[in-house]
Amino acid sequence: MVQFSGEHLTENLFLLITTIVSLAAWVIAFGALCAMRAVGASWWVMIFNLLLVVGIIVLILTNTFSQYRLVVLAFLAVSISYVTEQLSFAIALTAGNDNSYYGYGNLRAPAGAYAAGYIILIIIEILWVFVFGSEPNSYLGQFGHLGGLNSVQQQPHHGTTAGAGAAAGVGAAAGGNVVSHDAPIEMTQEKTAYDGAVSPQSPTMTHPSMATSPVLEYSERVEALHEYRANPEDPSELSFDRGDILEIVDRRGNWWQARKTDGTTGIIPSNYFA
């Protein structure tokens, strides 16, 4: 279930200020449009921008923005095009005292407020394009980093795997804390990183009955957007730092089968990666 947390927004000063200013700019433009008694496509542009700003805020509060970043950028491009057209219309209305040609009468004052609201909004949207469109580890991309995740939020609740329990039992019997990252992983319903697949075995532990098991191919590289510490009760999870590059098998499910640069394999939460 998606959980809302205001910390994701309040702890990032850039996101907090830009979202508040964008909402204020929209309110100014909305009030001016009502005063102008306009009809037609101007209202569609107004509603479109409201849905866009509210949608961005919701994605930030639920910490799911990274999963829909490209969609947001596409809608921002559409919005900038719409707002630019509306600015041309509003500036034309403010050019003189007699605007009867446009069918609205003398609307110089509300048209000026309409243009001012959209000018502020388009500036914010252009800033968002630069920040959201940049890589997370770049200078501009760091402004959109969603911090404020506490240790409880970073550790999703899920069941442990059968393979992990077996590995822990063997380690305890041997009198040491042994964690096998290459042991077969039987995914539960919540960990569907790679259903039906088995991690490759080390040469010394290969069993004849497992000789025909498929070998996983880590064909894609992903970059960590946030730091994550594995659940100590589940040896199948991997810990990583923000900016780490990991290799994954594919993007299916909420948990991905991954391999770190040091060769350690395990599973990682998908919402922590671009």
TrEMBL record:
It is a multi-pass membrane protein. The chain crosses the membrane at residues 12-35, 41-61, 70-93, 113-133. GO terms for cellular component: plasma membrane. Residues 217-274 form the SH3 domain. It comes from the Eukaryota. It is found in: Cell membrane. Belongs to the SHO1 family. This is SH3 domain-containing protein. It comes from Absidia repens.
